[in-house]
């Protein structure tokens, strides 16, 4: 039998000791089968722009880390017991995707990967060369997790684990240690589910099983810069960041275990931010209040634009004075344009005159178009 530097059982034991919810190992061999998915994804124009650019590095760990021998993949569950019965606090509230209800997962998982690297060194009694990544690395995290036996990829594209469903974040440690690999999870296991995720997706972003067109996915739309295309604004509802629909409807996510990492316990002001308060924040204040959340990286402007859309969708009359004040003074074109849209939804008759005045002084053509509804004969 082949001799490894560390056996698989030892890795599973270390994972359990470190409070890691899912752990597995795969070799550093290339992910040949993933290459065709990535090419198709790119050629169909379905990329979001958040993907690592170099395809060769996405499918071959040795292309960016030549000493690579094994990859230890980890999964951390983000729905803790405290998610049950989380109630919206008082006030006008938007909603974050559950993955942003606790602390930023990048920091939490990187912390686990650092502890893991230290434990490998302890086991071997020698320094270990590692490259660790969570989300922002070159590899396709879901493909790595599947080959490392952590779970399988569903038609909604999510990596689904047996214990915690798809409510898990993924990360990996590429290292120069020869570790016994786990058995890959067989693909896929949607069985006789009647494509509930594809049917429930509000924008038909799941264009076919296992394929997301990012430009239609509300998760991407909440993170994009600039004006949100009008066809998606009503579909956002109260969503401020991310979208959970294709996971909520998935039967494989029912009756799964809760995670135990207290870092992911929900913070009510992250889960359901106060919309009117959000509108008052400077970029610095926003970073102070939301900086520990995974939803902060795009800054205040994107979140405020989303909050204005939520207020428009809620037809919230109480928001009108603040929106009018911002329409007059705000220096950010996408904020002025989005406000004009929201005011039309909330109170077109009562705000027409003010929006027409804004139209007259608006320098940007694209933003003027958002205000044109208030002006007779405007094109
Ligand atoms: C870009 C990106 C996005 C984009 C594009 C998503 C997408 N589906 O590709 C946008 C902004 C839309 C997005 C949204 C979300 N994301 Co994101 N995202 C990424 C990122 C950075 C790259 C993904 C990528 O490379 N996509 C390209 C395609 C080809 O890859 P993939 O979907 O990962 O591909 C797998 C399957 O689709 C499958 N496949 C593809 N074609 C086919 C065909 C067949 C026949 C078969 C069998 C399989 C198959 O093969 C791939 C690997 O096995 C990863 C982190 C990373 N570095 O991997 C996080 C990541 C995928 N995102 C994550 C999360 C949590 C989300 C959201 C749930 C967040 C939310 N609640 O709003 C949504 C889910 C939306 C969705 N439908 O996927 C997690 C997923 C965790 C999990 N359990 O799966 C990741 C892994 C981040 C992390 N480290 O935790 N995301
Ligand atoms: S995250 Fe939302 S918009 Fe994106 S594919 Fe899933 S259900 Fe559709
Ligand atoms: S909802 Fe159904 S088809 Fe979609 S991922 Fe879950 S089991 Fe698969």
UniProtKB/TrEMBL annotation:
GO terms for biological process: tRNA queuosine(34) biosynthetic process. Pfam families: Fer4_16, HEAT_2, QueG_DUF1730. The keyword Signal does not apply. Coiled coil: none annotated. Residues 179-211 form the 4Fe-4S ferredoxin-type domain. Keywords: 4Fe-4S, Cytoplasm, Iron, Iron-sulfur, Metal-binding, Oxidoreductase, Queuosine biosynthesis, tRNA processing. GO terms for molecular function: 4 iron, 4 sulfur cluster binding; epoxyqueuosine reductase activity. This is tRNA epoxyqueuosine(34) reductase QueG. The lineage of its organism: Bacteria, Bacillati, Bacillota, Bacilli, Bacillales.
